[in-house]
Structure formats: C-alpha cells, structure tokens
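Technical annex B. To support the medicinal chemistry partners, we prepared a structural model of the target in complex with zinc ion, based solely on the information shown next.
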Amino acid sequence: MSNHLGPLEVECDAPPYAIVRACRKLGLSEPEDVRWCRKGRRSRRSQTQSWIQFFSPLWGHLMGREERDETLCLCGRPLPLLENYSFTFVSGEQVEYEIGQCPHCRTIYWDKV
Ligand SMILES: [Zn+2]
C-alpha cells in the first residue's frame, strides 16, 4: 500500500543526515553512499560463540544460528571497532555516537551512546 518503503527503511537504520554528512569529516569513506547498521542493544553473545564465529562463520550455519550474527559484518569479516564521537548541533545540543566502518565492505556500524 505504501509507496515510501524504500526511503523509510534506509532512514530506520541510519542516524540523522547531518550526522551522516559529518562523518565524512571524521575520515569515514563515502558515508552518504554506504550501508549503515545500527548495532542496537540486544544481548551480547557469549565469548565462546564469538570465538567460534571468528574462526569459522560456517559453524554458525551448521549449528542452526541465524544468518545475521552481530559479531560479524555483513561481508563475513569481524565487526570493526567502534569509536566514540561527539557531535554538536547548531542549536548547541550535543550527542554522542559510537561509529566504526568496515574496511572491506565499508558498512558503517553505529549506535547512540
Ligand atoms: Zn564488512
């Protein structure tokens, strides 16, 4: 019924556009054109499982885990390290984000601190 599914989906998983644009100045590659994934606050997986996923993503599939694992990037590599950034809007409002970009597929992972 809705004609707006595409743009809405993108907006759901990316921070406000002003933040996206500012990320270019932080040294991120093509922030306006790459995929953004919000990490969310779902429960973290156990250390053991991260270890298994790190060495053999295929194990996860064999063991019936869901395809999308939060310890791995969409391209199958380990997630990039997130760093804290503080943004100040013209209004003076300050927000903090954790942001990290995968060096392989350039997907940007983020969350609001
Ligand atoms: Zn990646």
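Notes passed to the chemistry partners:
Residues 5-41+73-112 form one domain.
Residues 5-11, 42-47 have pLDDT under 50 and may be disordered.
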